[in-house]
Amino acid sequence: ACARGAQWSRALVLLGEMGGSSQGQRALPAPDAVSYAATVDALARASRWEKSLSLLQEAADKKLGPSAAALGAASGALERAGQWRRVLPLLAWARSQRLKLSAAVLNAAMGALGGGGQWELVLQL
């Protein structure tokens, strides 16, 4: 819901509050792969690609992903931001995490590389 409502900052706050207990309030569940993917998606839609990439790493460090959906969202954010130089390292990192690269992820990567005039690299995917 935060992603569709362009409330990326609220998504980050919620992720940070998950797993903790607030005095007088019911504790939120611990974050999981879905909550990380949703937050990455909200950030990606808001063109906050740098933070979305750091959350991918955080999810991996906590053994909570990243999911294919989160990877796709981050790839799409890189494409929209024209950050083609970051696409290949992201794909290499995803492969090192033993993630399957979906058609959506590869399509976003091709779009980012193509948008940067890097057609030779597109052909190498």
Oligomer: single chain
The main pleated sheet reads as: none
* Structural category: mainly alpha
- What's the gyration radius in Å? 15 Å
The averaged pLDDT comes out at 85
Strand content: under 5%
Alpha-carbon distance between the termini? Answer: 33 Å
Compact overview of the structure:
This protein is mostly helical. It is built from seven helices and no strands. The mean pLDDT is about 85.
Which features does this protein show?
single chain, 125 residues, mainly alpha
Verbal overview:
The chain is an all-alpha fold. Helices cover 63% and strands 0% of the residues. It contains seven helices and no strands. The protein has helices at 8-17, 33-45, 49-61, 68-81, 87-96, 103-115, 119-124. Helix 1 runs antiparallel to helix 2 (33-45). The longest helix has 14 residues, at 68-81. It is elongated and about 55 Å long. The mean pLDDT is 85.
Give the topology:
Elements: H1 8-17, H2 33-45, H3 49-61, H4 68-81, H5 87-96, H6 103-115, H7 119-124
